[in-house]
Design goal:
It is built from six helices and 14 strands. The chain is an alpha+beta fold and about 230 residues long. The protein folds into two domains: about 80 residues, Alpha-Beta Plaits; about 130 residues, Pseudouridine synthase, CATH 3.30.2350. The strands form three sheets. Strands 1, 2, 3, 4, 7, 10, 11, 12, 13 and 14 form a ten-stranded mixed β-sheet that branches. The radius of gyration is 19 Å and the shape is elongated.
Length: about 230
């Protein structure tokens, strides 16, 4: 394999669960320096994934780091599962359940109709457990210190919201959305729309614009390819 990391490369990686996107970048930077002898290298990622999410992460090196903002503009596709009838402060499994709700009256038809209501343009309040910067600090720093924080709604667009499986209280889905969309917040709002609660239990990013997870490498697999040529 012929790579020129200083000149610029675009690498597709399947982010491991419980790794941050920055963990992947730092791990790969260390690999390039320690194993391939590339001492000075610019490297970044396009589109942050939550630690508990998996899926497509685009790494850019060298001069291609200038493309990161371009990649962030692309639409994204996700698959995943959420749990109805309960909520957590982070809207996913990073934090413990803080409230429960009955789900006996929620039908499959209600779930599918609710998904259709989210299609199109709307405004979404980001999660307080997020990397948004407020006064120079990340929002999740305030949230973990249990400080009150009011985040401004952001415009988003949902192009597709398909319910792929209903095994109460679990609901599987596929979503195509614009940049800046938080799937955890979408799940939060979905639960509220059903006069219940919901939190995200699994999430995988399958596409960023023209780039697909099916073409991505596991991080260890990518390193092995680079070492063996």
């Amino acid at each position: 394999m012929d790579f020129s990391f200083s000149e610029g490369e675009i690498l597709l990686v399947n982010k491991p669960r419980e790794w941050t996107s920055f963990d992947v970048v730092n791990n790969f930077r260390y690999f390039l320096k320690s194993k391939l002898g590339i001492k000075k290298i610019r490297i970044g990622h396009a589109g942050t994934l939550d630690p508990l999410a998996t899926g497509l992460l685009i790494l850019c090196t060298g001069r291609f780091t200038k493309k990161i903002e371009e990649f962030k503009e692309y639409d994204k596709e996700y698959t995943g599962t959420f749990i109805l009838g309960a909520t957590t402060p982070s809207y996913d499994m990073e934090t413990k359940i803080d409230a429960t709700y009955p789900v006996e009256g929620i039908t499959q038809a209600m779930i599918r109709e609710t998904a259709e209501r989210f299609l199109g343009s709307s405004f979404q309040v980001p999660p307080v457990f997020s990397a948004i910067k407020i006064g120079g600090r990340r929002a999740y720093d305030y949230a973990r210190q249990k400080k009150e924080l009011a985040l401004e709604p952001k415009p988003i667009q949902i192009a597709a919201f398909e319910i792929t499986r209903i095994t109460m209280p679990e609901v599987g889905f596929r979503i195509i959305c614009s940049k800046g969309t938080y799937i955890r917040a979408l799940v939060r709002d979905f639960g509220a729309a059903l006069h219940s609660g919901a939190y995200l239990s699994e999430l995988c990013r399958t596409r960023i614009g023209p780039y697909y997870l099916r073409d991505a490498n596991e991080l260890d697999e990518l390193k092995k390819k680079l070492l063996t040529g």
